[in-house]
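In the design runs reported in the main text, the only information available to the sequence generator was the tokenized backbone. The following block is the verbatim input for one such run; it is reproduced so that readers can re-run the procedure and compare outputs position by position.
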């Protein structure tokens, strides 16, 4: 474990998938088991209700039930839900409800549909950060949400809100990590948000990873992060070469379906998703299965997981 009160967002945090029963309801039994399995591999907390968690398909009562299950399952380790809403007021309500059920932090997203200039987007994010006293990660993913928070803007927000303590950087440009580190106070951690940029991101100054394929490969993910963090370049490169074909499943449009399919194929979950997502086609399954089988056939010697 690498988190602390002074740096609550250092380490490895799964963006946990939301498991569904055959009738479409949330499978809370598996959710609990899955979270504990990943934590036992060395993760530092859990991030539900993100894009990978299909949060936009969950009703408010379902979101709260997910948080209650995870807070209980993690037994004091931080649950850090995504706070995303069509409206600022809705995001504030979710943030405060998450605090009230015992979550240890929040990950604030820009609004789902509406995007505009910095004045409006700053007001939205500031409202989410100020809604509670909990430490907050700002999530920057311009490809998904069409709002691009630049380093000087994030620094401005951090200067006005002491509980902004992390940035999930998912632009795909590792130079953003360098730019953020140059302008943010040391109290604000930078977390890599794309699986296939983790080694580069850590080399540029990131101290955390919000990971996706970790839902099927937690021990391997934690090991990769630790090798990169500790400067063990050769060992990290070997593991990264093995892992990259799998990690790249995290950065395509159907990443939710693909990661859940990998979970099912490796015996760690179900591939069920909620509409508008649909099950992968047979051709897509075959392509993903080939990636999994190739990885299974060439596990690096001395991986130790």
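Verbatim output:
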């Amino acid at each position: 474990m690498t988190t602390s009160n002074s740096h609550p967002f250092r380490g490895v945090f799964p963006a946990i998938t939301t498991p569904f029963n055959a009738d479409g309801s949330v499978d809370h039994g598996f959710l609990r088991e899955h979270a504990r399995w990943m934590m036992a591999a060395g993760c530092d907390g859990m991030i539900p209700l993100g894009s990978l968690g299909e949060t936009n398909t969950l009703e408010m009562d379902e979101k709260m039930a997910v948080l209650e299950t995870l807070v209980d399952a993690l037994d004091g380790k931080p649950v850090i839900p995504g706070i995303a809403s069509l409206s600022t007021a809705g995001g504030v309500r979710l943030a405060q409800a998450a605090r009230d059920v015992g979550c240890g932090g929040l990950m604030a997203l820009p609004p789902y549909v509406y995007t505009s200039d910095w004045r409006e987007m700053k007001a939205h994010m500031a409202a989410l950060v100020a809604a509670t006293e909990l430490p907050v990660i700002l999530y920057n993913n311009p490809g998904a949400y069409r709002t691009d928070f630049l380093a000087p803007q994030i620094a401005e927000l951090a200067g006005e809100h002491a509980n902004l303590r992390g940035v999930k950087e998912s632009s795909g440009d590792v130079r953003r990590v360098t730019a953020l580190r140059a302008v943010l106070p040391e109290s604000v951690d930078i977390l890599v948000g794309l699986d296939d940029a983790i080694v580069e991101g850590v080399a540029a100054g990131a101290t955390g990873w919000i990971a996706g394929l970790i839902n099927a490969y937690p021990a391997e993910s934690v090991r990769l992060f630790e090798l990169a963090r500790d400067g063990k370049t050769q060992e990290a490169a070997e593991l990264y070469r093995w892992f990259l074909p799998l990690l790249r499943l995290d950065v395509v449009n159907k990443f939710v379906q693909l990661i859940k399919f990998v979970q099912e194929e490796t015996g760690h979950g179900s591939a069920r998703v909620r509409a508008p997502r649909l099950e992968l086609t047979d051709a897509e399954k075959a392509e993903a299965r080939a990636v999994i089988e190739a990885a299974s056939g060439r596990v690096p010697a001395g991986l130790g997981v």
